[in-house]
Amino acid sequence: MSTRQTSTMVVLAACIAAGVAGCSKAVGNDDPIAFVPGSISMVFIPDTQIYVSSASNNEIFKCMTQWIKDNAVARNIEMVLHGGDITNDNITSQWLAAKESMSILDGFVPYALAVGNHDGFSSTAINNYFKITDNPLNQAIYGGSFETGKIENSYYKWTSSNGRKFLVLALEFGPRQAVVDWSNQVLSDNSDYEAILIVHEFMDELSRIQTGEVQRTLPGTPGSPQDYGLVDTHCGQQLWDEMVSRHKNFSMVFNGHYMDRDGDGIATGHRSDEGIHGNFVHQAVFNAQWINNGGDGWLRLVEFLPDGAIQEKSFSPYLNQWRISNEYQYVHAKRTGDIEQLGTAGKRRLKSAESRE
Fold it and tell me: Which of 25, 33, 71, 349 has an alpha carbon 20 to 30 Å from 108's alpha carbon atom?
């Protein structure tokens, strides 16, 4: 590990004896930014494709979901978001491993699953292994799907414990035009719900290294849906232009997929932009599959505070460690239509696709 990497990762929890990692069960509040009582939490799980490829690595995946289950009450975790590439090869053994890990949450925390390119594109086998009825908490908040009986394009909505209303939209890799049209209708029909999108492909870390600020992907971006030869498809900037930016209730987007490019083992980047209605949308890429053991158990914790602010933090229950550098830990000021709160200096204006080509 380089000096730079060492300086950007701070171990705030107990050291793992003799370098052997376990699985933290702690529900205490040793967070670098304290959990605020009354907050609502969600947890983003990045690409799990390497975990499910071996029995030993899948123990880490199970550690992640077990920690979420164990902390669901103390941290008021109301939703788990999986960013896709659940599997590496869309094969039975890997789906069964993923099922074993995710089913730990059944009856305790609801979850939404996006589908990645490694999950088989349009031939994904996800529906052979995951059903809405598997988890009664999923069933209770399920809003509907683009195609009946298929969960790869679906949405979930609920009223949280403090009255805040959320809608999570989970989409396929490179959503087709019909899926985008359906999503726009869902969002319009539920405009009083704060919307969060999970989609496998949206932003990439390489753009942050090249330009100093992470960018939404373009059709020519290496790793975009178009780069895989898909035609009826949408990359990140196209999803922003045709869907995300158009709805006043959008607040967040999460994706994985992309490679680590700065050498710290995890692909990261975040930005906030105004939609056309003046609302701020916070976007983040987070993918840990490039680090040891297929990800070393890294999770992104997202906490919606009572005052309207949002905290994002990065934690590994497997290592019992936090990362706290700029791309791993940050706070978004209250966003609900309050453009003035961040001020001009705090705004990141939408950069047109033309200016970035």
Answer: 33
